[in-house]
Amino acid sequence: MTRKCDYCGEAHAELPMDIAYKRPYHYFLIPEEEVDKRIRINDDLCVIDEEVCLIRGLLSIPVAGCERDFKWGVWAIVSREDFARYLELWDVDYPDIDPFRGMLSCEPPGYDGILNAEVEIHIGKSSHRPEFRLRESGHLMYREQQAGISMQRVHEIVRQAMPHLFGSGSSDAGD
After folding, report:
1. What is the 3-state secondary structure (H, E, C) of the chain?
2. pLDDT digits (tens, 9 = 90+) for 160-169
3. Cα–Cα distance for residue pair 110/159, rounded to 1 Å
4. Number of domains making up the chain
5. Which domain holds residue 91?
6. What are the backbone angles phi and psi of residue 157, rounded to the nearest 5°?
7. Within a domain: residue 94?
8. Does residue 172 lie in a domain region?
């Protein structure tokens, strides 16, 4: 269902409050004809060449005046040790584990230079994906995660990442 948007004046569907990447950036570095041999992947985990371990999590950004955060469903490269520990704790709610580090494996539109940015990974309820918190930096996404954004900014993000919702263009988000 579409309605006239308060931000752009166009008629379009309600804005999504999350955008997810089905595959990490590093997945696409492997030639298509080699993917089946070199990559093991599901909705939450990915291993490339038995060396590069990735987990999928949520990077939340508070939205002023909104009860829900805007969330990016993204991937992070983690050490083999942290990956193994994460698997061991898969079914444990709120395990007694310190956050561990990873590096983002995505670069959402409008966030140039965020690929490989350091994140802290926090594990919570076993039925939920882990929470990714960017490590301190001057990057726009870090500043937004700390200070929050407006609904106008959510509109800008969605327009860049999912232009098809507005009647034109395409994006890699969701691939």
Report:
1. CEEECCCCCCEEECCCCEEECCCCHHHHHCCHHHHHHHEEECCCEEEECCCEEEEEEEEEECECCCCCCEEEEEEEEECHHHHHHHHHCCCCCCCCCCCEEEEECCCCCCCCCCCCCEEEEECCCCCCCCEEEECCCCCHHHHHHHHCECHHHHHHHHHHHCHHHHCCCCCCCCC
2. 888 887 764 4
3. 10
4. 1
5. 18-150
6. -60, -50
7. yes
8. no
- Listed in sequence order, the residues at least 6 apart from 155 whose beta carbon sits closer than 8 Å to its beta carbon are 5, 7, 8, 15
| CA angle centred on 77, ends 110 and 71, rounded to 5° | 45
Higher pLDDT, 96 or 136: 136
HSE, side-chain direction, 13 A CA sphere, residue 144: 20
Cα separation, 130 vs 57, in Å, equals 5
User: What is the chain's mean pLDDT, rounded?
Assistant: 89
* Amino acid, single-letter form, for residue 86: Y
Within a domain: residue 133? Answer: yes
CA atoms within 13 Å, Cβ hemisphere of 91: 0
The model's pTM is: 0.86
